[in-house]
Amino acid sequence: MVQDGVQFGKVAVLMGGRSAEREVSLMSGQGVLQALRARGVDAHAFDPAQQPMDELQRQGFARCFIALHGRFGEDGTVQGALELLGIPYTGAGVMASSMSIDKVMTKRVWQAEGLPTPRHVLLQRGHFTAAQVCDIPAQLGLPLIVKPAREGSSLGVTKVTTASQMQDAVAAAVALDTDVLCEQFIAGDEVTCPVLGAGSDARALPVIHIVAPEGQYDYQNKYFTDVTEYRVPCNLPAGEEAAIQALVVKAYRVLGCRGWGRVDVMIDAATRQPYLLEINTSPGMTGHSLVPMAAKADGVSYEDLCVQLLADASLDYGANKEGAA
């Protein structure tokens, strides 16, 4: 049910920030800002890279819609600041945000819970040798994927097809992060599935089948071209969509996420086994973004989605939590 925007009070849409995904965040934030205003919400743009966070309290903001992506926005840092300020915010809380942005930590949690995710090798800046890098294809096979552990939007990601590419691929990733994830490549269908809600109320939206040119679903093809095909309905074999939805909801819950998120999955072409890749706890809201696309397929407009997410804004340590003042 769409709520009256006035009841939310003064709302800050956090956008921009200091991460490598600043440009995308500004696009997401402007979309959310316009949508909330269209629904009667007293919404204002707020860029944490240009104003200190305590200005939110001084300026009387009652809630925050987090449209920040990547570090200093999706990693628990902004969430922690908002907890201290006592201002409810959209999306995952401090611990879930900080775990989910780290692809290696996410994998460890999923593996501990018996959930399928590709095999990997972790490299840490300053603690690996050229010989160790050269040995990774023997461990994971070729092709394989090399990416920073804590970046999004496919930044710094390389698909390595020959062993000679390994050093350059690792150098590109380590330039963006101290931790580099080398991951088994799963050949097959690439899909993504958003999740809304929290705990037992969390539910999956329709699965989106992503068909990118030559399989290159990179930063450019995500946000700045129209050559990638998004299939909703996903047209997967009978029963697969429901199985993937059940898997991503479990993956979301075990990380303690709330509000919303989007889980990326690869389906092995030979076995049809789905493998969890990563989770985004502050997904994009641009004209090319996938959560609004899945919501629309489920009968929820972009504006209504934004209002619903804002209505679910909360705190980890709010007045209703044990031990709160």
Automatic annotation (TrEMBL):
It comes from Ottowia flava. The keyword Nucleotide-binding applies. It holds the Pfam family Dala_Dala_lig_C. It is an enzyme of class 6 (ligase). Residues 107-311 form the ATP-grasp domain. Its main location: cytoplasm. Gene3D superfamilies: 3.40.50.20, ATP-grasp fold, A domain, ATP-grasp fold, B domain. One of its GO terms (molecular function) is D-alanine-D-alanine ligase activity. Transmembrane segments: none annotated. Belongs to the D-alanine--D-alanine ligase family. Its EC number is 6.3.2.4. Pathway: Cell wall biogenesis; peptidoglycan biosynthesis. Cell wall formation. InterPro entries: ATP-grasp (IPR011761), ATP_grasp_subdomain_1 (IPR013815), D-Ala_lig_Van_CS (IPR000291), D_ala_D_ala (IPR005905), Dala_Dala_lig_C (IPR011095), Dala_Dala_lig_N (IPR011127), PreATP-grasp_dom_sf (IPR016185). It catalyses: 2 D-alanine + ATP = D-alanyl-D-alanine + ADP + phosphate + H(+). Keywords: ATP-binding, Cell shape, Cell wall biogenesis/degradation, Cytoplasm, Ligase, Nucleotide-binding, Peptidoglycan synthesis. SUPFAM superfamilies: Glutathione synthetase ATP-binding domain-like, PreATP-grasp domain. Its cofactor is Mg(2+); Mn(2+). This is D-alanine--D-alanine ligase. It is found in: Cytoplasm.
